[in-house]
Backbone:
């Protein structure tokens, strides 16, 4: 599943890995020296990145809590990473069904150790570019039964997908889900014309890792999410979702020229 | 806990005041902490959501107050531990200490300095317990996470090891040869199939050699040039093994490249194509034989008809010619010559696989024994004839005379390969075994699908195998290629016309068998004939054929043959024997005549190959019209039915051209009386 360049072994210490870099910038210990070196390069050109990554995770928590309040008891999450303390199943009450997925099979194997014997959780290998594979695999039906009115997470992954891939993924999920389902995601609002030299350097670092970033304007994101529609409050700065000051947005614009992070909860 | 980490009795005197200050200004302190924590939200781990910072602020104040009331340091340690798990950052934690101190500084300005000092010392002790729990938890977390990473690494390494193991074994157990070299041509690895192919026991010995030795070229530079510029390097040639034996080889080689597409080595695969080439050669030969068979078949048919006419009329004239007269003698010469011609067409008929034959159940060992006895009497004494027969040999369905012919032809060839002067192969061949040994063997063989593919026309099943081997001069590949062609021979003109093995070929195929020939110059030859066994193992023996004599009779006979001379001969003979005759040129005419004159006609003599409507079709129509019709089949060429098939369908008898007139009239009489 997925492009061969994306299926990187999380434990391959010879090459930097975006997931491990992300973990380091979030303050974790699941990383190697090679990742920390690259992370420091990123911080040199984008010192706000660790804050950005925290915002992305906090948005997941925020979206999850809101959807729980709306009565959702089934969650399907993509590019989940490790199911640590703040993840969906930790926030949600017991018996909430959660399916996590990630493209890296070792992350998945790792995650199974963390989840243990929890029968309400599944963690499977799946590339978010091909969500149809998890939908057809049987695990969804096994855990959710025939219920397709669910909450879907595409958090912190949109900028790793090309426009076509992003559009395909959301469309497949839309076609599969029942009316009333929700999809939460965040994406940056980047205008290429305004990107600074530091912004270009950040892009180059990710490109050299083999995990290029595909940045787009918010307007473009709104086009690509079709046929999902936004519900109130629509696309909002992630800081506004969690009542934080706009420190990170200001830093992003200062460093990159643009790149504020927006989140939304979409509906079918 | 050491004494310096407990509240002194002096400080305890001020505790009530400190607690009162905290309780009275709790909201203010909570707000200060909340403001601090929110401003430092990004300094926390990602697991601490900003939504909880307000609640956390209250918790911090409550916890501090509780400590001052109860001095339960264990609870503070636990508090620190929990905060670490939740994700409170170090900077916010240390800033918390300052917030507490600032609070008391602001609220004790007008009070006894001792209260401030007591408060600060109390805060320090509180933070020590707090940090103790916090740091212990962080250490556990770090170690736990590193342990998780170690496990992941171990899992990944296991996975990589498994994949590598499979890949290594894939090459190691691959059925064809694999050789790896570096970019200088030094051999770094060969798999067991390679060693077997080239007859090496030790891969280390191979690595000492130059790779060009195995690649069919002496110039490694050329190989590298091709590899760099084209899609691999390919070559086919005859390779020589370590032990001197040769085999046909197909090599493919390509560069091994790393992740950056840079060459790091060379991989070559070796396929032994000897068997494929041999089968291809056999296939070409079979196609050639098929074409020759078609050609010869046509010749046999026409020749038989001519011979029949000559034989027939000669016999008729011999009956009338006075013995001892010149005419009689001349006619006898003609008869002898036609007999020889008959022998020739009989052999050719074997080759064209058009000999209908008379099969019966028999054990080939009987034929072998008879042949052995004959050979012992007729072959030179210096030829040792060995027998190795399976006593439990299964029975087959075969024509005994054809089996005898087959064995005899093979044995004669074997003899000629061993006796000097009879073989015309030059230059002189050095024989591995100087003794002249002819071996006849039989055995039961079950051939599975896999083995069957090694033989041209081979099919899986149960067979008997007749093996004829000799220690003669052997044959080179170019001779083996043409072995079964009619009139091909390596002997002198006087000793053979080259039909012997063509006959063997035809007989084997007539009996739904197949064969294999192995021969090497100087090492002799081995012919293996595989014949399918009979389901029921009933032993049979060869019996003599019954030869009828010229017979007279009565009745009306319809003679159907497209050859006018054949018709003429037949009716002349029949009339002489007392029969009435009617003639037809083809099946259509015959059918029409029979329908109109059914009550007059007692017997139909039907040729098989005719225009408009052939004998087989006509026979079926006659049977449909009149199931009681008596039909005698006359044939020397058929591709759509064997003798047994005609008899099964209701023919009274079948006679094979060219036939003797006494056989002919005997069959007529028999058919009429059945």
Residues:
């Amino acid at each position: 599943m997925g492009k061969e360049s994306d299926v990187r072994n999380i434990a391959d210490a010879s090459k930097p890995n975006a997931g491990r870099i992300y973990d380091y910038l979030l303050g974790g210990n699941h990383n190697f020296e090679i990742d920390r070196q690259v992370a420091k390069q990123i911080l040199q050109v984008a010192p706000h990145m660790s804050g950005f990554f925290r915002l992305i995770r906090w948005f997941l928590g925020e979206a999850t809590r809101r959807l729980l309040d709306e009565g959702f008891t089934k969650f399907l999450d993509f590019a989940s990473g490790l199911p640590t303390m703040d993840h969906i199943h930790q926030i949600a009450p017991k018996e909430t069904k959660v399916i996590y997925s990630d493209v890296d099979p070792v992350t998945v194997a790792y995650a199974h150790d963390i989840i243990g014997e929890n029968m309400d959780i599944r963690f499977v290998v799946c590339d978010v570019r091909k969500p149809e594979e998890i939908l057809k695999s049987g695990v969804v039906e096994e855990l959710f039964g025939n219920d397709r009115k669910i909450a879907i997470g595409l958090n912190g992954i949109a900028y790793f997908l090309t426009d076509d891939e992003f559009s395909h993924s959301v469309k497949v999920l839309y076609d599969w889900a029942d009316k009333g389902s929700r999809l939460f995601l965040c994406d940056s609002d980047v205008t290429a014309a305004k990107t600074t030299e530091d912004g270009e350097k950040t892009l180059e670092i990710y490109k050299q890792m083999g995990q290029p970033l595909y940045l787009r304007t918010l307007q473009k994101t709104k086009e690509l999410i079709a046929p999902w529609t936004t519900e109130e409050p629509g696309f909002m700065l992630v800081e506004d979702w969690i009542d934080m000051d706009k420190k990170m947005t200001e830093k992003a614009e200062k460093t990159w020229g643009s790149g504020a992070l927006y989140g939304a909860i979409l509906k079918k | 806990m050491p004494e310096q980490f407990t509240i002194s009795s002096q400080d305890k005197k001020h505790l009530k005041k400190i607690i009162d200050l905290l309780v009275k200004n709790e909201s203010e302190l909570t707000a200060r902490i909340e403001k601090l924590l929110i401003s430092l939200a990004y300094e926390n781990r990602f697991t601490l959501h900003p939504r909880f910072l307000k609640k956390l602020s209250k918790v911090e104040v409550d916890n501090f107050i509780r400590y001052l009331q109860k001095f339960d340091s264990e609870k503070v340690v636990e508090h620190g531990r929990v905060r670490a798990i939740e994700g409170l950052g170090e900077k916010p934690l240390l800033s918390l200490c300052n917030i507490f101190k600032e609070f008391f500084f602001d609220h004790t300005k007008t009070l006894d300095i001792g209260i401030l000092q007591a408060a600060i010392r109390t805060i320090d002790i509180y933070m020590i317990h707090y940090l103790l729990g916090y740091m212990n938890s962080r250490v556990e977390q770090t170690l736990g996470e590193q342990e998780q990473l170690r496990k992941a690494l171990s899992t990944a390494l296991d996975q990589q090891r498994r994949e590598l193991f499979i890949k290594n074994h894939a090459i190691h157990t691959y059925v064809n040869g694999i050789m790896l070299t570096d970019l200088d041509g030094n051999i770094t690895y060969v798999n067991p199939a390679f060693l077997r192919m080239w007859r090496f026991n030790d891969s280390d010995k191979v690595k000492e050699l130059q790779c060009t030795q195995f690649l069919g070229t002496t110039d490694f530079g050329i190989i590298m040039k091709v590899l760099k510029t084209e899609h691999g390097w390919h070559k086919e040639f005859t390779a020589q093994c370590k032990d001197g034996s040769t085999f046909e080889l197909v090599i493919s080689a390509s560069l091994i490249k790393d992740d950056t597409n840079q060459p790091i080595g060379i991989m070559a695969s070796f396929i032994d194509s000897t068997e494929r080439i041999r089968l291809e050669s056999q296939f070409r030969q079979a196609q050639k034989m098929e074409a020759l068979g078609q050609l010869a078949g046509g010749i046999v048919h026409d020749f038989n008809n001519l011979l029949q006419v000559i034989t027939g009329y000669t016999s008729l004239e011999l009956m009338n010619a006075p013995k001892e007269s010149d005419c009689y003698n001349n006619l006898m010469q003609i008869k002898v010559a036609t007999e020889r011609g008959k022998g020739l067409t009989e052999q050719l008929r074997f080759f064209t696989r058009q000999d209908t034959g008379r099969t019966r159940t028999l054990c080939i060992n009987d034929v072998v024994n008879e042949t052995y006895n004959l050979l012992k009497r007729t072959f030179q004494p210096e030829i040792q004839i060995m027998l190795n027969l399976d006593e439990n040999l299964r029975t087959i369905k075969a024509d005994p005379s054809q089996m005898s012919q087959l064995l005899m032809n093979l044995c004669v060839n074997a003899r000629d390969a061993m006796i000097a002067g009879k073989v015309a192969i030059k230059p002189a061949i050095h024989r591995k075994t100087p003794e002249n040994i002819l071996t006849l063997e039989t055995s039961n063989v079950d051939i599975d699908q896999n083995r069957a593919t090694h033989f041209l026309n081979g099919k899986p099943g149960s067979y008997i195998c007749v093996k004829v081997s000799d220690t003669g001069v052997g044959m080179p590949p170019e001779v083996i290629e043409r072995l079964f062609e009619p009139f091909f021979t390596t002997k002198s003109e006087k000793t053979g016309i080259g039909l012997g093995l063509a006959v063997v070929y035809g007989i084997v195929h007539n009996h739904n068998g197949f064969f294999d020939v192995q021969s090497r110059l100087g090492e002799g030859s081995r012919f293996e004939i595989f014949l399918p066994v009979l389901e029921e193992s009933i032993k049979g023996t060869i019996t003599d054929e019954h030869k009828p004599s010229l017979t007279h009779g009565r009745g009306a006979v319809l003679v159907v043959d497209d050859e006018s001379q054949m018709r003429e001969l037949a009716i002349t003979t029949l009339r002489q024997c007392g029969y009435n005759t009617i003639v037809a040129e083809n099946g259509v005419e015959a059918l029409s005549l029979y329908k109109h004159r059914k009550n007059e006609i007692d017997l139909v003599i039907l040729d098989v190959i005719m225009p408009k409507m052939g004998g087989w079709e006509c026979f079926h129509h006659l049977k449909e019209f009149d199931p009681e019709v008596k039909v005698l089949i006359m044939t020397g060429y058929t591709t759509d039915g064997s003798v047994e098939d005609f008899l099964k369908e209701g023919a009274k008898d079948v006679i094979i051209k060219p036939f003797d007139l006494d056989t002919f009239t005997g069959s007529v009489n028999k058919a009429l009386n059945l």
Observations:
- The mean pLDDT of chain B is 85.
- The domain at 177-272 of chain B is CATH 3.30.450.20 (Beta-Lactamase).
- The CA atoms of residues 635 and 656 of chain B lie 5 Å apart.
